[in-house]
Amino acid sequence: MAPKTKKAALADMLENLSKSDFDKFCSHLLDRREEPRVRRRQVEGKNFLQIADVLVSTFTEAGAVKVAVELLGCANCGQEVEELVTVIAGLDSKPGTRDTARPSAGAAGVDTTSDDQHFVDKYKLQLTDRVSHMDPILDRLLDRGVLQREAYDTIRALPTSQKKMRELYCGCLKAGTASKDVFYQILLENEKFLIDDLNTKH
């Protein structure tokens, strides 16, 4: 049965991880330096249901999904990232299941939605035209599990930044809000002045 809430989706994802990957996920959760922080006593010896509770109680449902995607990427669980964002996208598309915590906050606490439209979607044309250093962005998307190796190799081989960006929009950025939030965070890290300029137009 498909999960009805994001918390249930997170619990299902954690339950399906191997013991090794679950341990890596928890280790990366404890290693996060961004606030709010998770304490060791909240994680050690806990099962998948308890960890899902910790994620949601610490970050809210919307934030917990974003953090889970980040941690899965750190643990090299790319397949699990794809499955999770697909499930979350399905929940977001159902009436009455949109995040009550919206507008969504990006990794730096910046509002990533406007009139129910994500920053990445709202400024698609501007980002496609103006993002110039795509290779480090693709590297980060691969590292965080948003891009799979085959898609990464295909996009990296394209001749221009504009074509690479269009391919991202046709692929992994269609998976849902979680993948867009990760992409937005990476843009902040690699194209800060461009993002700041676009944010002034919100």
TrEMBL record:
Subcellular location: Inflammasome
PROSITE patterns hit by this protein: CARD, DAPIN
Alphabetically ordered keywords of this record: Cytoplasm, Immunity, Inflammasome, Inflammatory response, Innate immunity
Protein name, entry field: Apoptosis-associated speck-like protein containing a CARD
Species of provenance: Labrus bergylta
Gene Ontology CC terms: canonical inflammasome complex
Pyrin domain boundaries: 1-72
Domain CARD: 112-202
Record Pfam families: CARD (PF00619), PYRIN (PF02758)
Gene Ontology biological process terms in this record: inflammatory response; innate immune response; regulation of apoptotic process
Keyword Cytoplasm applies: yes
